[in-house]
Amino acid sequence: MSGIDTSHRGPRSRVSLARRTGFRSSGIERTRLLFQDNPPIHRLFSRSGTRKEISVRSQGQATHPSPEAWEIDIRELLRRRRVSEAKARLAKAWTVFPDHAGFAMTLGGVHCRDASDEQALSARMGRDRRALVADGFAKAVVACRAAIRLGVDQWEVHVHLGTALRGLGRMTEAAASLARAYACRPDVRTAASLLEAAVMAQGIDFGRQLYAGLAADHATDAAFRAGLGDAWARLLFEAGLTAEVEALGSGYRCCRLSAVPDWAGAAGVVPVFTGDSEAIPVEDPRMIGGPPVPLFKGVVQGYRPYACVVPDAVVLSKSDMVLTADGAALNDVATDPRFGRFVEFFHDRAVVLRRDGHALIDPREHRIEDIDGGVMLCGGSSANFGHWIPEFLCRLPALMEHPAFAELPIIVDEGMPSSHVEYLRLLVDNDILALPEGGGLRCRRLLVAPPPTFFPVHSTVGHPIPEHEQGPFSPRCFRFLRDRVSARLPPSGARSRRIHLSRRKRYWRHLLNEEEIAATLRREGFETIHPEDLSLVEQVRLFQEAEAIVSPSGSCLINLVFADPSVRLLVLNQPHMFSLNGFYGPMRALGYEPVVVCGEGGSATDKHAPFSVPVARVLDGLERLGLR
Fold it and tell me: CA 615, CA 599: separation in Å to the nearest integer?
């Protein structure tokens, strides 16, 4: 029996989490890379030679299936990604055949991979699953150590054990296990993971000696030394030794983080402030069927809008950072005086790590070209509709006030949904310059503006940022979008359609009983629409023609601004409101009166969790809106 495929299926995780979660993102990333070359998961038992390497000292009771039968069953479950069932079958198989080292090793690998995936995904989603992750790593330790006691001395089992021990914070033991893995397979990924664990266990000075020794062992292997050098650079950065990072010559850039106005003041650049900050109303709705909880109502102060030309600035594809010639990385959200320290950059392709007031940037994979100038509307989350509108397009009112705006092309990320570019073309007449994947631009003049409010994509687990402070929509900017689009696509006047917006094709926040609700709504005259199948013009027309809308909460409701304020809107929400007040309050300020129905299930720590809504509550909502 061989090791399983423990390649990390979740998103890439690179930003330091040690301060808030107890997890080190470089360790999470290293786990993903370590297991990248393992055989596919469905080849669990098929590597040649493993029968001779694994001992089977007990065949169990005659009434049980043979080990081979269990193997076939488990392999098929893993091939289908039914990991929970596979773990249960492995645990049962190991109980039946307690001296079967292969079952022990594979169970340890599955637990380790699953815990690593959950660790990375939870950090990205800002949810606290530390207890679940720790339980998975603890089970991996038990199973891997049992396999070793049964005679297994393979790279896979030592890597799984070392990774699990590191996940539990047992760094000295982790380093010992990873040293054994390195002895089995002295490749750069294992060496880098060993170096990380050793630094966490014994400090940066010990790591400096180990790094020198590992590099000397592979003095003629340029690729090994380069990969190990990158790992060492990350560790130096996390230790605050930025000068040593630069001295390595790895190509990483250690940039000081700065807000644009702060940097401009020191650099002698004058931003054009275009108005006062906006007082944004936020308000919790009273949900039909919701629990009797206190409802919040207040005001969030937005950023003061400005437009600023940054000279000789570099922008990289899928990155929110503006890199200046004097070594700064400009980002107003990351440097927000109240909450910026809690911002993470999992989505940003260029940010490797952040620590205190610095960011470690990797521009090496970007092909940077020189242009005269441009307007920055590119960024790590530009492909997400729920960010493209309130975070990016809502910068246009400030940008358009700058005298240089009309003459500059607008820089966007290549590969965005076509509706995003279509929306932009309805708003402005500028040329559009698509920044390709892996590309970068050095602009003699880069025109930038802030989002209307503090708008983080990811935040640290357990952060103290109030829900209503996390990206509430700007009524002022939404009026601008509505007026500009309506000038080119004026409403026809007919408002008779009853629309049910589906999330079935979306990645998360699924409505578990959507088919039942859709059937009920059809009997009430509603048609089910998948907004992602429509062009932007078709989406605008859909909302303009709507008499009534029923929809789960989600980014598609941003288009509500194109509907007449008399539209009757029923929002289906999970029991936990999260930042719903940042939608409800601004929409009421724009003249809309949404009615919200409380669902069941969901998660108090994951706003993207699936949920259901009792049909009776949906019908109650329709009655309150006068639609029955």
Answer: 10
Report the distance separating Cα 546 and Cα 535, nearest Å: 17
Burial 12-26 (b: 16+ CB within 10 A, else e): ebbbbbeebbbbbbb
Positions in the chain whose pLDDT score sits under 70: 1-64
Q: State the pLDDT at residue 63.
A: 53
- The amino acid that residue 581 corresponds to is N
CA distance 420 to 470: 23
User: Quick one: pLDDT at residue 38?
Assistant: 45
Q: In this structure, which amino acid lies at residue 53?
A: E
Q: Which amino acid is at 278?
A: E
C-alpha pair distances (Å), 583 with each of 10, 256, 536, 586, 587: 29, 34, 21, 6, 6
Q: What is residue 66's predicted lDDT score, i.e. its pLDDT?
A: 84
Give the residue from 437, 251, 482, 470 showing the smallest Cα distance to 339.
Answer: 470
Instruction: Compute φ and ψ for 451, nearest 5 degrees.
Output: -65, 165
- Asked if 442 and 320 count as a contact pair (C-beta separation under 8 A), the reply is no
Would strands 358-361 and 253-258 be described as parallel, antiparallel, or unpaired?
antiparallel
Strands 410-413 and 367-376: parallel
pTM value surpassing 0.90: no
At 476 the pLDDT is: 98
The C-alpha atoms of residue 501 and residue 499 are separated, in whole angstroms, by: 6
DSSP conformational letter for 558: G
Are residues 176 and 81 in contact, defined by beta-carbon separation less than 8 angstroms? no
> What does the alpha-carbon distance between residue 255 and residue 325 come to, in Å, rounded to a whole number?
10
What pLDDT score does 121 carry?
A: 83
Burial class (CB in 10 A: 0-12, 13-18, 19+), 53: middle
- Beta carbons of 115 and 167 less than 8 angstroms apart: yes
Full DSSP string of 96-164 = HSTTBHHHHHHHHHHHHHHHHHHHHHHHHHT---HHHHHHHHHHHHHHHHHHHHTT---HHHHHHHHHH
Neighbours of 94 (CB within 10 A): 23
Q: Which residue has the tokens 């290293």?
A: 30
CA 15 – CA 467 distance, rounded (Å) = 22
Angle subtended by helix axes 83-96 and 101-125, to nearest 10: 150
Q: Which amino acid is at 222?
A: A
Q: Are 451 and 332 in contact (CB under 8 A)?
A: yes
> In whole angstroms, how large is the CA radius of gyration of the chain?
27
**189, 193, 201: which is closest to 161 by C-alpha?**
193
Q: Cβ(596)–Cβ(569) under 8 Å?
A: no
Calculate the alpha carbon distances from 237 to 242, 244, 536 in Å.
Answer: 5, 8, 44
Write down the mean pLDDT value for the chain. 89
Residue 76 contacts residue 66 (beta carbons within 8 Å):
no
Contacts within 8 Å (CB) and 24+ apart, 179-185: 180/153, 181/155, 184/153, 184/154, 184/155, 184/158, 185/155
DSSP E strands in 270-409: the ranges are 272-273, 279-283, 297-301, 306-316, 322-323, 328-330, 343-344, 351-355, 358-361, 367-376
* 101 Cβ contact partners less than 8 Å away, ≥ 6 residues apart: 1, 54, 55, 56, 146, 147, 150, 151, 152
